[in-house]
Amino acid sequence: MEYRTYDASVCVMTKIFAMIGGKWKPIILYLIKNDINRFGLLKRSMPKISKKILTEQLRELEQDKLITREVISATYPQVIEYRLTESGTSLRVLIDQMLDWGVNHFRNEYTEEMMREFQNKKSVLEVSVS
Amino acid sequence: MEYRTYDASVCVMTKIFAMIGGKWKPIILYLIKNDINRFGLLKRSMPKISKKILTEQLRELEQDKLITREVISATYPQVIEYRLTESGTSLRVLIDQMLDWGVNHFRNEYTEEMMREFQNKKSVLEVSVS
DNA sequence: CAGGCCGGTCACCGGATGGTAACTAATTGA
DNA sequence: TCAATTAGTTACCATCCGGTGACCGGCCTG
Q: What residue stretches are annotated with the HTH hxlR-type domain (chains A, B) (predicted)?
């Protein structure tokens, strides 16, 4: 008997998760979509991310062509702007759908306790959403 | 000036990725959807996964209510069947959409070299797809 | 001329994630 | 009696991802 076999190293979905599964990446994509598009703005919007990690995640998103990095002013206080690529924008749509699924899933499948714990962490599902 | 702030620990998308971002999980969901629903079948379909990891990932998917585990026969050679829950089924639809996005993204944004490397790894995009 | 703002880099560290190999129970068939 | 099948468990190990804190250059303001 033969089986069609599968391997994670060759799985498209695994590659996609590698691109956007990073701890802060969905949030970063969400923020950039909403014109929070400069390093400092992003940093201030995510108080718990470090500069190093933020830089890393931005570089990776750029390499994967989900965002672009544009140097507006190289001197002075530097100004650098990030934007979603077309591909990045279309992905963000899918992420939003998945988000809806998640909100629903948690509502249906999770116990009241879990929901309460959720609330305690101030995770307002619909707001701090991505 | 005030900013709405965001934190990964409270981000729904981060939770979703934690659920299905595991190295083998998209593949497992795909296989179970296609009635490759027993431990041994799954193992043989993913030659490079170890029993321990397969068990772990299955348990996690079960805890997150994406699959169910049903003991068909406890004695003999045991028989245990896994199935997608309703929630798991609806998620798999979204994963398939994301997959389409991925195939497209790789085609458009990646260089020819990367595509060639891809081919060398026998990653036939449309087939070993999830 | 010290300090702040901007957008980073660098060396180092720790915990989670994934992986290996050996071992388990219970039953059937040769 | 020995091997094979089923579906795991256990102890241990290695790698990687994310995180911390210090530091950088250049300009402007007090």
A: 11-110
